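Exercise 7b. Backbone tokens:
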């Protein structure tokens, strides 16, 4: 065994971006479920590994790393081939990938988390106009980033595609991804679905997330 353990839940978008990266790198790993609703992430045993109590958490032979964006960069750096395009070494290309990673971390995923955390933890079922607009802004930015290119930073698949797509494929659970407004985002997600590992690493979990929230939330 590789000695790599990923802690998480498959409905969680950032967990799925790590699964996409692990699978793209053909790495074997053990998946350990963390039941957030049962509060497992706030138990001492988990807090010792990740005091921020978030999933995903990576344990690479005793090295603990959290935040999906840090995890995916680490994985490609450690296990990718030297000329791996998934996280390019060229400074400008890498800066573009980093920008999309920070966009996911600070805007796109936060738009999702700000709606679904109040629902899961406090049963808040209403989505304010402001929160809905944050999701639509996110879709709009993705549409612009894509331009006429197949991937989110251009012509090659990178970890930025994994992070943004894990979130974007889950957001329709909250706000529709309208075909007339965001055709490039839809085509990009369909393109990623063709990856041989996509369904297992992201597709099934995203569907579970969408099904879980179907009919539960109301737009104000
Ligand atoms: N920026 C973090 C976000 C992780 C995150 O918010 N994960 C959620 C599940 S999707 C979580 O662990 N929530 C529990 C908590 O924050 O206590 C990442 O990309 O890993």
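Sequence design result:
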């Amino acid at each position: 065994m590789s000695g790599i353990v990923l802690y998480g839940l498959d409905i969680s978008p950032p967990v799925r971006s790590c699964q996409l990266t692990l699978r793209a790198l053909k790495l074997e790993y053990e998946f350990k479920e963390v039941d957030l609703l049962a509060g497992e992430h706030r138990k001492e045993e988990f807090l010792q590994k990740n005091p921020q109590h978030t999933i995903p958490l990576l344990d690479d032979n005793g090295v603990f790393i959290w935040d999906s964006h840090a995890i995916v960069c680490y994985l490609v750096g450690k296990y990718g081939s030297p000329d791996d395009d998934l996280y390019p070494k060229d400074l400008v290309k890498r800066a573009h990938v980093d920008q999309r990673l920070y966009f996911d971390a600070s805007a796109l995923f936060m738009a999702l988390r700000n709606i679904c955390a109040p629902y899961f933890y406090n049963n808040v079922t209403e989505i304010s106009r402001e929160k809905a607009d944050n999701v639509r802004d996110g879709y709009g930015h993705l549409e612009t980033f894509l331009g006429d290119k197949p991937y989110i930073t251009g012509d090659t698949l990178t970890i930025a595609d994994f992070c943004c797509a894990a979130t974007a494929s889950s957001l329709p659970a909250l706000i529709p991804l309208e075909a007339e407004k965001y055709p490039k985002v839809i085509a990009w997600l369909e393109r990623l679905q063709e990856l041989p590992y996509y369904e297992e690493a992201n597709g099934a979990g995203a569907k579970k997330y969408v099904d879980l929230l179907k009919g539960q939330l109301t737009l104000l």
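Instructor comment: Residues 91-219 form a domain with the Glutathione S-transferase Yfyf (Class Pi); Chain A, domain 2 fold (CATH 1.20.1050.10). The chain has eight helices and six strands.
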